[in-house]
Specification:
By secondary structure, this protein is an alpha/beta fold. The protein contains six helices and five strands; from the N terminus they run αβαβαβαβαβα. It has a five-stranded parallel β-sheet with strand order 1-5-4-2-3. It is globular and about 30 Å long.
Length: 113
């Protein structure tokens, strides 16, 4: 547990969520069967995305939760958005749904390009 987590309190979800830099994220999504999720809007997704990503719009809460429940909770999930804000929130939702291996791209798609 980091100093700041101890100081300000830590949510249990942080134990299951790891924020990765580009190289570690690329290595993780290179594995076969990886669940790669882009939580940006459809128009953002159409303007460019990481290969093999599935688009699940963070702002469409009902559809997002339905789509998340169709994912395999026993396998790692790699998430990204534009800057890392939405994917960070989506990661916490996945943890509440029983996922315990969630990876978030530091800096989002903006850093990827």
């Amino acid at each position: 547990m980091s100093f700041l987590s101890k100081l300000f309190g830590s949510s249990a979800s942080s134990d299951y969520i790891k924020v990765l830099g580009i190289e570690d994220f690329k290595a993780g999504i290179a594995n076969k069967g990886t669940q790669l999720i882009d939580v940006r809007t459809a128009s953002e997704f159409k303007s460019g995305a990481i290969a093999n990503a599935k688009n699940i719009d963070f702002f469409n809460k009902a559809a997002m939760e339905t789509a998340f429940k169709k994912l395999d909770a026993s396998k790692p999930v790699y998430l990204y958005c534009r800057s890392g804000n939405r994917s960070g929130k989506a990661a916490k939702i996945l943890v509440t749904l029983g996922f315990n291996e969630v990876y978030d791209l530091r800096g989002g798609y903006t850093s990827w390009r």
